[in-house]
Amino acid sequence: MFSTKLSARNNFMQEGFSRLWRGTNASLTLAIPTVGIYMPCYDYFRNIMEEFTTEKSPSLTVYVPLVAGTIARSLACISCYPVELARTRMQAFKGTQRNVKLPGVWKTLVDVVNPVKGSNNGYRMLWTGLGAQLARDVPFSAICWSILEPTRRSIQSAMGEEPRAGSIIGANFAAGFVAGAVAAAATCPLDVAKTRRQIEKNTDRAMTMTTRQTLAEIWRYELEIH
Fold first, then answer.
1. CB 186 within 8 A of CB 139
2. What radius of gyration do the chain's Cα atoms show?
3. Dihedral (C-alpha) 71, 74, 75, 78: value to the nearest 10 degrees?
4. Domains of the chain, residue spans
5. How would you label 142-168 residue by residue, b for 16+ Cβ within 10 Å and e otherwise?
6. Which of 54, 172, 202, 203 is the most buried (most CB within 10 A)?
7. Other beta carbons less than 10 A from residue 37's beta carbon
8. Residue 25 to residues 22, 29, 94: CA-CA distances in angstroms?
9. Distance from C-alpha of 21 to C-alpha of 179, rounded to nearest angstrom
10. Sign of the Cα pseudo-torsion (181, 219, 117, 20, in order)
11. What pTM was computed for the model?
12. What is the rounded CA–CA span in Å between residue 169 and residue 218?
């Protein structure tokens, strides 16, 4: 909490109040297609798999949210990853002058693939760190849905046959809060590795870095400074 406040204070003092919302346009650009792919795909895969397992193998039905969430999140992540990369780089960008306009989503992506900047990998650079993103998002989604669905059903079953709308919203909120908290805590190291790979300035190194290597480097660095 202290480090978060200190970081926000430094951003405000060095770069101005608006810098605290850096990357918001990229976040909005990312949210719409991601949710538009993720949620419909999850519902689709969950429904067809639940129907299949209920008929063929009821014991496997409990694993349906995990598999459906994994597939849906993978599709959404791969499809929208360039915008995710742009958002991370925009948030990590450090302006040297307060009145200079920061690069937008398109300019950030052009800089990623611009050969003048030293990239010889072309459009492959737009998916730099995709492995780390999948390593973080796929387990997050699998853990989240595996906890959310049974937790929500348990809470709703305790409400009786005709729960009020407010009770249903409360049940969804409680189940989502618990599932999201557990999934976020479990995948936080992978999120750190993903961010480190996305903001790596050496393009050749960025293309060869692995999640395991990145986590090992972070671990060694933390041991050295402590």
1. yes
2. 21
3. -170
4. 23-128
5. bbbbbbbbebbeebeeeeeeebeeeee
6. 203
7. 18
8. 8, 6, 17
9. 27
10. positive
11. 0.70
12. 40
Tokens at 150, concatenated: 């049974």
Q: Which one, of 135, 84, 85, 87, lies nearest residue 113 by Cα?
A: 85
- What crossing angle do the helices spanning 64-92 and 24-56 adopt, rounded to 10°? 170
Cα–Cα distance measured from residue 184 to residue 189, given in angstroms and rounded to the nearest whole number? 9
pLDDT tens per residue, range 33-70: 888 999 999 999 999 999 999 999 999 998 999 999 99
Contact assessment for residue 111 and residue 85, using Cβ atoms and an 8 Å cutoff: no
Structure tokens at 7: 């970081």
| C-alpha–C-alpha distance, residues 210 and 135, integer Å | 10
Q: Which pLDDT tens digit goes with each residue over 164-210?
A: 888 889 999 999 999 999 999 999 888 888 878 777 777 667 667 77
